[in-house]
Amino acid sequence: MHNILQRSAAALLPLTLAFTATSCTLEVKEDESTGLEASVTAMLERSAEAWNDGNLDAFMSYYASGATTSFMTPDGPVYGPDQIRAGYESWFASDAQRDSLRFEDLNVHQFPPLTGIATGKYVLHRAGQVTATGWFTL
Questions:
Q1: Which of 25, 29, 39, 83 is the most buried (most CB within 10 A)?
Q2: pLDDT digits over 42-64, tens only?
Q3: C-alpha dist (Å) from residue 96 to 93, 103, 126, 137, 138
Q4: pLDDT band at residue 22, thresholds of 50, 70 and 90?
Q5: CB 12, CB 74: distance < 8 Å
Q6: DSSP string over 61-120
Q7: Which CATH class is domain 2-137?
Q8: Which of 1-5, 28-32, 41-45 has the highest mean pLDDT?
Q9: Contact 88, 14 (CB under 8 A)
């Protein structure tokens, strides 16, 4: 799994939360005035904060708990939060060098009442230099 994520990070961020075909947990109330886009943006900001703080538990809390939750790698999907977490553990080791994470170009399309799809770009950066970037779908 570590080798898969190393290749993924170099090409796609182990975060690919690529998110291509990833599940995340997000609770949005129908009467919430901020809307789905603001909720997704806030969730991604909290996820990036957890990544940047080196807090794997908090970072993983944004993944849905079901067995169908997936993380896309160059070798195909990894299923379930336990397997996904195992892939991240080396990135969160106390001696690991982990680039900072931010998200850009977020587009959220809502399908009433509370379903939607989000696409955006993750950016890993260190010392003012972008080290990896790619697109994701939630």
A1: 39
A2: 999 999 999 999 999 999 999 99
A3: 5, 21, 14, 27, 27
A4: low
A5: yes
A6: TTB--STT-EEEETTEEEESHHHHHHHHGGGGSTT----EEEEEEEEEEEETTTEEEEEE
A7: alpha beta
A8: 41-45
A9: yes
Other beta carbons within 10 angstroms of residue 75's beta carbon come to: 11
Confidence at residue 112, expressed as pLDDT on a 0 to 100 scale: 80
Q: Is the dihedral of CA 127, 128, 131, 132 positive or negative?
A: positive
Task: Check: CB of residue 5 under 8 Å from CB of residue 83.
Answer: no
CB neighbour list of residue 80: distance below 8 Å, 6 or more residues apart: 66, 67, 69
Dihedral pair phi/psi, residue 130, rounded to 5°:
-75, 125
Give the type of residue at 115.
Answer: T
Q: Does residue 87 have a pLDDT over 80?
A: yes
Are 136 and 22 a contacting pair, CB within 8 Å? Answer: yes
Backbone angles phi, psi at 137, to 5 degrees: -135, 135
16 — pLDDT class (breaks 50, 70, 90): very low
Please state, as a whole number, how many other Cβ atoms lie within 10 Å of the Cβ of residue 42.
12
pLDDT at 30 over 80: no
